[in-house]
Amino acid sequence: SPLATYQETVFLNDADMVMSFVNLVEYDRELSPQRRHHKEFKFNLSQIPEGEAVTAAEFRLYKECVSGAFRNDTFLLRVYQVVKEHLDREADLFLLESRRLWAAEEGWLEFDITATSNLWVMSPRHNLGLQVSV
């Protein structure tokens, strides 16, 4: 497959800057048993210059092939924006996207998080990260 699709190439050509951010969560904190299939992701967007508009933002995950007993199964992957954290219970989440995937599928999954990224840039205190559930 090509490195960039036509649409991605158009975005890249129009951009004055392309940035990549790594996940700051090294160790997942213990989530409740109901959320044991959730993973947290946090990104520091403070490098984006003040006043700059985020024209496109993608959250990318690499999905490996699941073989064996589950090979023919599908599962639902959901990406959430963390809206509010609580000391005494699980965080409030806002569903950004859900996608049904084949276990045997392998490759990059891309999720549009442009609106969420713009919120985080304009109001860094709202940057509580993402959660992914399977």
From TrEMBL:
It holds the Pfam family TGFb_propeptide. The keyword Disulfide bond applies. It is found in: Secreted. Residues 2-134 form the TGF-beta propeptide domain. InterPro entries: TGF-b_propeptide, TGF-beta-rel. One of its GO terms (molecular function) is cytokine activity. GO terms for biological process: BMP signaling pathway. Its main location: secreted. Keywords: Disulfide bond, Growth factor, Secreted. One of its GO terms (cellular component) is extracellular space. Belongs to the TGF-beta family. This is Bone morphogenetic protein 6. The gene is BMP6.
